[in-house]
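Appendix B, example 12.
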Amino acid sequence: MEAANPFNAKQIKHVSLVKEDVDVFVFWTRDPRHILANADELTQRGYPFYVMVTVTGYPEALEPNQAPVPEVLESMKKLSLKIGQDRVIWRYDPIILSDITNNEFHYNNFRKISQDLSGYVNRVIISIYDEYAKAGKRLNELEREGVLKLLDMNIGSLTGVLPDIKECALSANMEIQSCAEKEELLSLGIKPGACIDSGLLQKICGTEIKGKDKHQRPNCLCCKSIDIGVYKTCEANCVYCYAR
């Protein structure tokens, strides 16, 4: 297949999807229903894969077209029963602090989702909102319109909620890890992790991929991979998303 650089459509790379050339597929999605519908075909063709599903349950102002959370959770549970708990990973990211998504909101929201997914998901990944130019502009516009007020998102502000989130995850029998965050979250009991995790790859499909992906952010721990995703294809249209 041909995959275009999202920042330069003229820069094309050719990626082989021949089974012998593919170690594993790692899917990111906000709506796993399409993956659920095609999981059997991928398995029959012999492609190892796992799926990361972002579920944040934010107000409509931030996630105007997100699929209904109950439907997404139900699809995650069905997918877990089909392919296994290790291969369905919940992402609660990015964490945004505002007057409509404050510490109390995140605690109650995370607790509800984690309890619903308990027994179906073994790992949850969190990250803190990083501002990208276009996303920041959209959020600032919401502030000007009086829809929300952004709050400080430094480590001091997060100490009021992250320890509680960690306890919710543990109560739901989930490992919790951070994505591309500074190690200061370790002081709150949340260890840094990798989304494209060499240890998980070896566990679920016997594949060993060595070496950190040098093209990712400095604090990213993912192993080497090739991104064939396409920007501006997600229907959720989240205000804070860099790929919108």
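DSSP finds seven helices and eight strands in the chain. The longest strand covers residues 88-95.
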